[in-house]
Write a structure and sequence with these properties.
By secondary structure, this protein is of the alpha+beta class. It has a single domain, classed as NADH Oxidase (3-Layer(aba) Sandwich). The chain is built from eight helices and four strands. It has a four-stranded antiparallel β-sheet with strand order 1-2-4-3. The longest helix is centred in the middle third of the chain and has 22 residues. The mean pLDDT is about 95.
């Protein structure tokens, strides 16, 4: 077939030991990933965060619009403001918004409106989705496509990159998250998607005892 313009030869990644060894090695690392709410204040170099975001930025996206923005916060004052905003929404959630079934489902995790980890973790990464592209030189904003799908894939790659760096994360979703835009001075076309505390787990960190679904519960093969 004819080669479209502005295309280059693809250079595939070839893992040492072949495909099976590569994917099993990746699984062995990722199966240790857990959501953590008990963080150490041990510093994490900015360069580590930058490389993790670079990895997230390699994610596929609709029409290659890359509709994401990662705002990494280490400033103590901003972290305090984010915590206060999150806890205000969480108090509403636990007292008024969440139904009985939802609250029952959360009981095994011991969660409540206290989000002190938002100040303890050395970094908070707020992921924003772009509902329009950034303005060009003439101030024109273009369309974006499959935004939630694209940003969701990028977030998954970010979590994987941070885990491979030996860091712990939590996918925190105070709802609604509108308070994050003004605190972080983001423009109207950026909408909060997810708040991710990042750092090392505390020495006394514990996590719920969980069982992940077996392969035959999540995979259907039609060969």
């Amino acid at each position: 077939m004819p080669v479209p313009p502005d295309h280059v030869s693809f250079e595939p990644y070839r893992p040492d030991g072949g495909a099976l060894a590569g994917v099993r090695g990746y699984y062995d690392v990722m199966r240790q990933r857990r959501s953590v709410r008990m963080f150490s204040d041990r510093p994490v170099p900015r360069e580590v965060i930058e490389w993790a975001v670079r990895a997230a930025g390699t994610a596929p996206s609709g029409a290659h619009k890359q509709p994401w923005r990662f705002v990494a916060v280490a400033d103590a004052g901003l972290k305090r403001a984010i915590r206060e905003g999150a806890e205000e929404e969480e108090r509403e959630f636990y007292t008024r918004r969440a139904g009985e079934e939802w609250l029952r489902d959360l009981e095994p995790f011991g969660t409540d409106a206290d989000k002190s980890f938002l100040e303890t973790a050395p970094w908070l990464i707020t992921v924003f989705k772009l509902v329009k592209s950034d303005a060009d030189a003439e101030g024109v904003q273009g369309q974006v496509y499959y935004v939630n799908e694209s940003v969701g894939i990028a977030v998954g790659m970010l979590l994987s990159a941070l885990h491979h760096a030996g860091l712990a994360t939590l996918t925190h979703t105070p709802s609604p998250m509108k308070f994050l835009g003004p605190i972080l001075a983001r423009p109207a076309h950026e909408r909060p998607y997810l708040l991710i505390p990042v750092g090392y787990p505390s020495d006394d960190c514990v996590v719920p005892r969980l069982e992940r679904k077996a392969l035959d519960e999540i995979l259907v093969v039609r060969a």
